[in-house]
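One-letter codes give the sequence; each number marks local geometry. A record appears below:


***
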Amino acid sequence: MKHAFIALGGNIGEVAITFNSARVEIAALPHTTVTASSLLFRTPPLGPPGQPDYYNAVIAITTGLAPLALLDALQSIEHRHGRVRTVRWGARTLDLDIIAIATEIIALPRLSIPHPLMHTRQFVLRPLCDIAPEWHHPQLGEPASSLLADLLRHGEAPLAEGRIW
């Protein structure tokens, strides 16, 4: 069993309800348990203009699934929740990203672990720090809390406080 962190994002529909449903489906995966959930944070979109704000959260799991099997399962959950991949960084009902699996480094055509941009995205680091501020990035050697502090030191406005979902 390995510890992993999954980032959740979405900006179409009843996002909190979708996140709750996805969390239940993830917990039902074979050899998988959800161990923690962050607060839900509202963030401006990074992608094409004109889309609504996003909501973001992170959950911690333990899983016996292999990384690609976990990725396939998460993409299946996205699909069941109406995720359609047409526009990069476009509006979506649900986005599930594996941001880390313990301290593993994985470089495959379909999967890069840790997530290659996680250290530049407050909407990932802020909810991750809610549940695992001490988690160390295996390539950068820094805890999540330090990575978030670096973003804030370099002028990013902190995200507004989150809410329970």
